[in-house]
Amino acid sequence: MIEIFKYPFLRNGLIGAMLAGIGSSLLSNFIVLKKMEFIGEGAAHVAFGAIALALFFNLNINVVSLTVAIVFAIAVHILGKKEKVQENSVIGMLLTLSMAIVIILLSFKKGYVPEIDSFLFGDVLMINSEDLKLLFIIDLVILFYIILFNKELKYYAYNQRLSKIFSVPVDFINLSFLIIN
Fold first, then answer.
1. What span, in angstroms and rounded, lies between the C-alpha atoms of 121 and 151?
2. b or e along 27-50 (b: 16 or more beta carbons within 10 Å of the residue's beta carbon)?
3. For the segment 10-64, what is each residue's pLDDT rounded down to a tens digit?
4. In the list 71, 89, 98, 144, which could disulfide-bond 49, CB 3.0-4.6 Å?
5. What is the pTM (predicted TM-score) of this model?
6. What is the pLDDT of residues 119-166, one digit of tens each?
7. Torsion, Cα of 122, 124, 129, 133 (10° steps)
8. Nearest CA among 89, 114, 121, 116 for reference residue 102
């Protein structure tokens, strides 16, 4: 059984899955308390749209995905706050918009288009050492964020109106929480 781990792709896949699980588990309590379970699916589909955008314009997939994810979080924050629309509704609207963009962009792409389903569903065995470093850094950022804003996040997750009474910067916590997701 130990011989399996002599292959780097299996080792990287296992370590990557554990690192992804750590980051997800650190944020999951606050996501469930805030009733934002849809954020994971919405962010994944918006990132899929970012990947199609990067493939269409031959850009770096990681940079475009990160940029689009931050824009997605800002849009959810602004539309959820200003328009008095629930955040899950905004996430659903942006999810369908991004999937439509994927279909349009990839239909115009000339030449070779990689197996696009692999980007949507992922392949844990394709994780490389650079991805592991990035996952580790993201986990550290999430951990320090939760340690630094633990009290504020608890107030924010349980009751947003009550957190304003306790002088919690709700807008900052909401936006930063959406970005870190």
1. 35
2. beebbeebebebbeebbbbbbbbb
3. 899 899 999 999 999 999 988 888 888 888 888 888 888 888 888 788 888 888 8
4. 98
5. 0.83
6. 667 778 788 899 899 999 999 999 999 999 999 999 888 888 888 888
7. 70
8. 116
